[in-house]
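Students often ask why inverse folding is considered easier than folding. One informal answer: many sequences map to the same fold, so there is more than one right answer. In these notes we will look at a single instance of the problem. The structure comes first.
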């Protein structure tokens, strides 16, 4: 009997022969892997042929709502897209909010597994539990924002939710992503290209099936408790207003300790500011503290992109363009914003507000302080379906190559590439989306671009195992460097780790578990913290909960109570962390069984502080990454040389048989 928060059913879609088949999923599997990419990695480990071509018919692409998606749990909107990444050659997953995940669950499915390659462009329409493939010939070539609207019109179903690709995915750009709700992106790992390779333009879903919860009364009570924790007092609104003019000064004096203070003492203030401007509020602080990369990771914010510039693309400068706010399903925070740029060459109407990662990726890393160009770049990425982090980082790489004569005006059609040129950023992005001119060289990210350009350009290609790192500098928070390298999907900032704890003192939101206090530049004794945080985050992601709400930004949310009320499983904190560890280990084992050497993922020298910066907050810092990695491996019971989990660990996590079966295939 189902106890709650899942349907117990998946759909397999083989696009080669067009066969669509339902399958049952036992409660035991949810108990071990939750949903989202946790469930996806378990099924893919069992079903996918070893060494499948990521852009071939054997790669299985999963669309998986989180375990709590489709219920009314606060923050439960997120779904994962997962499969073998064509960008890194290893495990790939990415997740997005919006409304698609909950709708897929309400249409009757916990997961969709797509294999094969369709002979012609198609989209999959799942309507109240009935699935069919439909012709997408007329949609091929449409951007992701328009495709979504066109599909709703064709279906005559305005409530349908759509996950789709733009032109970048169709052209199999390795930095393309899966888009939903006009700008929510499952951005990383190049999974848009996998959809493109399958000629799958979109998945559209509609459903009203009730997703059960185990203890409705308790579930409603806990949900209400969470929502009420987010009600800012009138006082916090006033404090935010009064301190706004002196925020730059506070940032300069106290740096990220401000965020830490707010996190510990002022829930209402955090909620109020986040609700107003989302993560865009953090850009100036990140430049100031050295967290945001500057000039392809070679610069120093306070010198090369000073506050007078950073402030133009941060916080109030961004919200000035904001016309309205929007929210994901079941979210009490609602951090999204829609903007207008009324006129000029970057004019745009009701487009999504760029968040921190995007502002950094088209701002300081390119020395670009023109906000309107960044708003335009964000909208172009949403339409082409391109990962903003990878796209901005690849343009930064191109600018540095040009500066050093590795790309010349012959390659650019006569244009001189310059740092801080907003029109050029937009124009290069268009070329990448269309795979035209230099854009064709850049459209697959920095690693491929460096291979194409040659001439030693690899030294400017900042990537980890093929993927451009997120916009957070390990010289400021060394533990993010360890996460970038050890996670099965490298270069990710949403894979947990000890960085929040070391830079802001954030506490793990599980009451009965206390972790040792750690310091930023401490290199031993952190493995246990890294392990706990990454296990927690993999569990949260597999639950479909948004990390903004549940990973410490808002202190002490009763996440565990919510899970237990929804599932009836009676988990304690250690139980939840063990599930996260199982998910993390399964992702890691996907790569090991593919024959991938974890040592292929290295942190670029610049990000280690070799040579160290001569100025700014992280001047003189060289991080000891090897020590951090050793500690993490030991904590996870992974062999320091081979990276294989110990036999006992495989047994404890119930993965031994799964891996034996996979190796025999
Ligand atoms: S906090 Fe923002 S991203 Fe997260 S679920 Fe809410 S609206 Fe979506």
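Output (designed amino acids):
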């Amino acid at each position: 009997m189902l106890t709650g928060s899942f349907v117990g059913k998946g759909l397999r879609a083989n696009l080669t022969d067009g066969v669509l088949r339902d399958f049952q999923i036992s409660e035991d599997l949810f108990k071990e892997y939750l949903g989202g990419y946790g469930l996806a990695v378990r099924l893919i480990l069992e079903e996918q042929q070893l060494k499948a071509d990521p852009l071939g018919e054997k790669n299985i692409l999963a669309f998986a709502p989180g375990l709590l998606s489709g219920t009314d749990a606060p923050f439960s909107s997120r779904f994962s897209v997962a499969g073998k990444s064509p960008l890194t050659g290893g495990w790939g997953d990415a997740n997005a909010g919006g409304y698609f995940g909950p709708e897929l669950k309400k249409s009757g499915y916990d997961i969709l597994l797509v294999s094969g390659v369709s002979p012609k462009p198609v989209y999959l329409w799942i309507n109240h539990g009935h699935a069919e493939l439909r012709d997408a010939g007329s949609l091929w070539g449409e951007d992701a924002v328009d495709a979504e609207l066109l599909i709703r019109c064709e279906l005559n179903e305005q409530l349908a939710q759509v996950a789709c690709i733009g032109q970048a995915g169709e052209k199999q750009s390795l930095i393309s992503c899966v888009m939903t709700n006009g700008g929510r992106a499952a951005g990383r790992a190049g999974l848009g290209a996998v959809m493109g390779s399958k000629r799958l333009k979109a998945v559209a879903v509609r459903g009203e099936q009730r997703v059960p919860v185990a203890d409705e009364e308790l579930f409603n009570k806990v949900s209400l408790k969470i929502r009420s924790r987010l009600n800012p007092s009138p006082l916090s609104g006033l404090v935010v207003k009064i301190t706004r003019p002196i925020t730059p000064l506070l940032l300069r004096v106290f740096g990220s300790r401000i965020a830490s203070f707010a996190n510990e003492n002022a829930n209402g203030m955090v909620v109020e500011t986040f609700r107003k401007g989302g993560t865009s509020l953090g850009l100036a602080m990140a430049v100031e503290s050295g967290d945001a990369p500057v000039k392809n990771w070679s610069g120093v914010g306070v010198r090369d992109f000073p506050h007078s510039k950073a402030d133009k693309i941060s916080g109030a400068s961004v919200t000035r363009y904001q016309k309205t706010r929007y929210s994901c399903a079941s979210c009490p925070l609602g951090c999204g914003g829609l903007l207008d740029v009324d006129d000029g060459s970057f004019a745009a109407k009701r487009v999504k507000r760029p968040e921190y990662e995007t502002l950094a990726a088209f701002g300081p890393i390119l020395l670009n302080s023109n906000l309107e160009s960044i708003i335009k770049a964000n909208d172009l990425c949403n339409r082409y379906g391109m990962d903003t982090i990878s796209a901005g980082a690849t343009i930064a790489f191109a600018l540095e190559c040009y500066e050093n004569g590795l790309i010349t005006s012959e390659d650019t059609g006569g244009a001189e590439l310059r740092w801080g040129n907003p029109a050029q950023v937009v124009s290069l992005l268009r070329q990448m989306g269309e795979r035209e001119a230099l854009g064709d060289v850049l459209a697959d990210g920095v690693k491929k671009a460096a291979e194409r350009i040659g001439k030693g350009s690899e030294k400017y290609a900042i990537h980890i195992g093929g993927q451009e790192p997120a916009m957070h500098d390990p010289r400021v928070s060394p533990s993010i460097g360890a996460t970038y390298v050890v996670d099965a999907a490298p270069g990710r900032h949403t894979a947990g780790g000890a960085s929040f704890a070391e830079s802001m003192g954030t506490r793990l939101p599980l009451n009965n578990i206390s972790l040792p206090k750690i310091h930023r530049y401490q290199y031993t004794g952190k493995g246990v913290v890294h392990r706990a945080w990454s296990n927690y985050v993999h569990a949260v992601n597999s639950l479909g909960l948004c990390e903004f709400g549940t990973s410490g930004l808002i202190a002490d949310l009763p996440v565990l109570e919510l899970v237990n009320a929804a599932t009836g499983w009676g988990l304690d904190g250690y139980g939840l962390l063990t599930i996260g560890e199982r998910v993390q280990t399964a992702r890691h084992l996907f790569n090991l069984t593919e024959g991938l050497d974890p040592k292929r993922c290295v942190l670029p020298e610049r990000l280690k502080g070799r040579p160290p910066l001569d100025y700014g907050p992280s001047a003189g810092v060289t991080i000891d990454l090897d020590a951090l990695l050793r500690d993490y491996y030991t904590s996870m019971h992974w062999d320091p040389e081979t990276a294989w989990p110990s036999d006992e660990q495989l047994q404890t996590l119930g993965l031994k048989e799964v891996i034996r079966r996979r190796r025999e295939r």
